[in-house]
Amino acid sequence: MKLLNQLPMQIIEESTDSFEWCGLLWVPKTNKFGSIYGYSAEIKNLFLKIIGNELTISNSLQKFYMDSNHKMFTYTQTIEAFDILNNYFPFDIYDAAVKKIAIGTVIQEETDLVLNSWFTFSNKLPFAMLSKNKMYGLKYYLSDYDLKGYNKTTEVKNHNNSILNQQLFRFELEIKRIHCLNKGKNQIGIYTVQDLINPFKYKKLATLLLDKYHKIEKKPTINLTKTSLKEKRLIASFKDFDVLNSIKKQHPNSYKKDRKEYKNLTLKLNDNTFQTQIINKLNQQIQYSINN
Predict the structure, then answer these.
(1) What is the rounded distance in angstroms from the CA atom of residue 101 to the CA atom of residue 17?
(2) Is 33 exposed, middle or buried (0-12, 13-18, 19+ CB in 10 A)?
(3) Phi-psi domain of 123 (left: phi exceeds 0; alpha: psi -120 through 50; beta: other)
(4) Which terminus of the chain has a lower count of CB atoms within 10 Å, N or C?
């Protein structure tokens, strides 16, 4: 969000006609009573609004820069993208306040295999992401941020009518309340656009993405032939969210004991090979973005 010191005369006079400013076509926005409350414009996929003297710009910087977000987007490209955007205006966008951000990366992987392993995040179940009435991703809704993973190949096909030759999985962190990045011992300090191109803060944001994936509770991959009947029942209870919550609320002492036994069992028998591969792929993409 950028506070404008000077506004076009058309905005000051609340013109009912569209007009050009900064090489963009600005269209008046009206409420249900027909009164003008602001003006909007677009730059490629970016949405711009001026309400009062506040300019807001939203949507994907990567799509603005390269028309899609199914490819790698590096630190250098991020700097270039903001520079291109800044050149549209007679003022500096780098001191504009950041209210929300989304960060993500893409890996080559079968999405169903990844999502079928997801269980809870902060004791919350994910919601299905639908396209053409079919699930193509999962999303966790939290108070300060959301997490989502989805089939990027399907999303591009359904939304852009484009065919990708690879099976791509995209993982994203959407920060809805920027203050969550600016408090606590691990604060990053994101206040303005300038902070987004600070190399140290860029690295911290990228690392945060991987940290959130780590914290998604995954369903264990256990060879049940190596477990006893009691252990099978324990595993079953921890795979059913409703049963697990019921035990936690109604039998807290038993839950603590079961939780400890379950953790020890998964540490002993869980095959982490697949999750290790996913984390390594995500980390490779993230490190490339940071260092290029």
Answers:
(1) 32
(2) exposed
(3) left
(4) C
- Give me the count of residues in the chain: 292
Alpha-carbon span 3 to 96, nearest angstrom: 8
Residue where the block lists tokens 């984390």? 279
* 198-252 pLDDT per residue, tens: 999 999 999 999 999 999 999 888 778 888 888 888 888 887 778 888 888 898 8
Q: What is the DSSP letter of 123?
A: T
Strand 19-21 and strand 134-141: the pairing is unpaired
| Dist. CA 37–CA 114, nearest whole Å | 45
What are the φ and ψ backbone dihedral angles of 128, each rounded to 5 degrees?
A: -70, 140
State phi, psi for 230 to the nearest 5 degrees: -60, -40
CB 285, CB 105: distance < 8 Å: yes
The phi, psi pair for 43, rounded to 5°, reads -125, 105
Q: Tell me the sheet residues that pair with 19.
A: 26
Cα–Cα distance between 161 and 145 in angstroms, integer? 29
Using DSSP, state whether 121 is helix, strand or coil. Answer: strand
Whether residue 23 contacts residue 8, with contact meaning beta carbons closer than 8 Å, is answered with no
